[in-house]
Every structure is written in structure tokens, then in C-alpha cells.
């Protein structure tokens, strides 16, 4: 009997020791990033790219608020003994974006550039890479640039999450901050010197609703709520001030209230959208299967909580780009 009781106590103690760790505001950034790191390593081993060869769709989306006019490549890299990263020159926009497993210390390089990163520079032994390669020059060129990207790491130690995180509490924290997505100032959410602190509202919203977003030196984002209904709506705006001659471009993508693509007619961008006679652009939002009387620039949606993100890549002047994004119009029902 005593042996049975002792065995039961040991079993209960063991179960308590192995209990999942509750996710709070204080540890959410690490818990969320551990999730993405783990998912990446289920697809490819440490220090190796997982290249998406096709544009993101409703069926293959993996990261919240994905862009659909470029190809994503991802990797988790051990930088404990240093690593060099390199991009080839090409005819399309390409950027390799790095950050650590606190979702901070953001860095990036463009095509034709390279960077050396070690633990001291990264702030951790492991970093995540999200490489974006535009398809504006065609799929063959995009695939060539993906394949030419170099990871030269001097160590390949297995990655382990900081804790066994509780999924339910992580989902709850994410949902809490996700609801505030239209309040975000992305130039403060993703910055090169940001630290993962829960009192930084923009950082928390960014981690929950736009994980792996680029710093404002490389891209500016503007998030706007829809009309609150599945109905015809539109926006008209002047094109952002970007380095178009260096591959810079803008795109607008619509998402559900939870931040996921709703339909495969989900975006418009500066390389394919039709401009108005005065050089401005009008984008039309329509219920799925409808066009709302528009001949072009139509984005479909099917969720009353729909919202959209304007992305402006390669801003010429950060301050000017931030001002343009802050003054970007809201969607108006037709």
C-alpha cells in the first residue's frame, strides 16, 4: 500500500514538473517565437532554408498576415560560433531579414549584400531568417535568387524551446493583442534596437499580429480596419514615396479579423495595379465572387472583421514614409 501511495505521489509530482508553462505578456514574445522556430525545424533542419516556390495562398499560408506578391524563405540558424549570410544581385526585390528568439534585434540585407552575425550581435545563440523575394521579374528569376542565398554557419547545435509553453494561454494572449492591430505604429513595433518588453504596446501588437515584420528602415506598414461588414468599399490614395528604381514597391492585402487570407483574390500592388488618370490609385474591396462594378484593382473578402495592410518596401526617407502611412485613408463603403 505504501509503495502504491509513493508511486502515485511520484507520478503526480512528475506530471506537475512537466506541466506546460502559462504564457503571459511578459513571456509572450519568446513563446510565440519558439512556436515559429519549432514549426520551421519540423520542415527543415537547423541552418537550412525552407523555400516557398509559389506565392502564398489561402491553403498554404503559415505566417499570420503573409504577403502574396513575393516568395518566402525561412530558416533557423545557430550563430553561437558565428555565421555569414549573403544575397546575390538580381532583377527583383529581395531582402533577408534576421531576428532572435525574443523577436528583437532585427537586421536585414538587400540583394548583393552580406552580413556576419554572432551571438553577441544577435542577442541569442539562434536567429530566424525570413527572406522575401519578389516575383515581379518572373518566377525563374525569383527561384534563382532564392537558390543563390547563402547561409554559412560554423555550428549546428539543435534548438530547444525555452519552455514547454501552454498553447491555450498563448492563443489567448495573441488574441488579446491582435484585437488592437489597427492601433499599431509599425515604425515602433519593428525596430533595429527594440527590446522585448510587455509594456511596449506596439511591440506586443506587432508580435501578435505581424510576427516577423520588417523594421521601418526597410519597410513601412499601415493597417486599417474594414467597414465592419462584408460589403463593397474602396480607398483612393497617392503612391508612396519609395525607391522604385531599386525594386521598391507597395502592396495592399486584405485579411480576416484573425489576420489570415480569406480568398485568393486578396491583394493589389504597384507592379500590376491600374492607376487613375491623375496618378493616384483606387482599390476596391468586394464580397467574394463580386466586383462591385469595378473593372480592375479588386480585392475580395468574406469576413465582417476584414482589414487590410499597406506595405511600402524600400522607403526613400523613413520619416516621410511614416507620415504617409499615418495619413493613409480608411476604406469607405460604396
UniProtKB/TrEMBL annotation:
Matching InterPro entries: DUF1214, DUF1254
Keyword Heme: no
Superkingdom as given in the UniProt entry: Bacteria
Signal peptide (residue range): 1-19
Domain DUF1254 span(s) in chain numbering: 46-84
Record domain DUF1214: where: 235-315
This protein's UniProt keywords: Signal
Protein name, UniProt field: DUF1214 domain-containing protein
Amino acid at each position: 500500500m505504501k509503495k502504491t501511495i509513493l508511486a502515485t505521489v511520484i507520478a503526480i509530482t512528475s506530471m506537475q514538473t512537466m506541466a506546460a508553462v502559462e504564457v503571459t505578456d511578459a513571456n509572450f514574445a519568446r513563446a510565440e517565437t519558439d512556436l515559429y522556430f519549432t514549426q520551421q525545424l519540423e520542415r527543415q533542419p537547423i541552418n537550412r532554408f525552407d523555400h516557398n516556390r509559389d506565392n502564398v495562398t489561402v491553403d498554404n499560408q503559415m505566417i499570420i498576415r503573409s504577403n502574396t506578391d513575393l516568395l518566402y524563405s525561412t530558416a533557423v540558424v545557430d550563430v553561437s560560433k558565428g555565421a555569414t549570410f549573403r544575397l546575390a544581385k538580381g532583377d527583383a526585390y529581395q531582402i533577408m531579414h534576421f531576428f532572435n528568439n525574443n523577436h528583437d534585434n532585427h537586421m536585414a540585407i538587400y540583394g548583393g549584400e552580406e552580413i556576419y552575425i554572432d551571438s553577441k550581435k544577435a542577442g541569442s545563440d539562434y536567429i530566424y531568417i525570413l527572406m522575401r523575394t519578389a516575383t515581379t521579374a518572373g518566377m525563374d528569376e525569383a527561384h534563382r535568387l532564392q537558390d543563390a542565398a547563402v547561409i554559412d554557419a560554423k555550428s549546428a547545435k539543435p534548438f530547444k524551446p525555452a519552455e514547454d509553453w501552454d498553447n491555450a494561454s498563448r492563443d489567448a494572449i495573441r488574441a488579446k493583442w491582435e484585437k488592437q492591430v489597427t492601433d499599431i505604429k509599425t515604425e515602433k513595433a519593428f525596430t533595429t534596437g527594440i527590446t522585448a518588453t510587455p509594456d511596449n504596446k506596439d511591440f506586443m501588437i506587432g508580435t501578435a499580429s505581424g510576427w516577423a515584420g520588417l523594421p521601418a528602415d526597410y519597410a513601412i506598414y499601415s493597417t486599417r480596419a474594414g467597414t465592419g461588414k462584408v460589403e463593397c468599399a474602396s480607398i483612393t490614395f497617392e503612391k508612396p514615396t519609395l525607391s522604385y528604381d531599386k525594386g521598391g514597391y507597395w502592396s495592399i492585402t486584405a485579411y480576416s479579423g484573425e489576420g489570415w487570407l480569406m480568398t485568393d483574390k486578396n491583394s493589389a500592388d504597384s507592379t500590376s495595379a491600374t492607376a487613375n488618370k491623375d496618378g493616384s490609385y483606387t482599390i476596391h474591396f468586394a464580397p467574394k465572387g463580386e466586383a462591385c462594378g469595378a473593372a480592375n484593382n479588386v480585392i475580395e473578402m468574406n469576413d465582417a472583421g476584414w482589414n487590410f495592410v499597406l506595405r511600402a518596401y524600400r522607403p526613400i526617407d523613413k520619416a516621410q514614409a511614416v507620415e504617409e502611412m499615418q495619413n493613409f485613408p480608411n476604406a469607405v463603403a460604396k
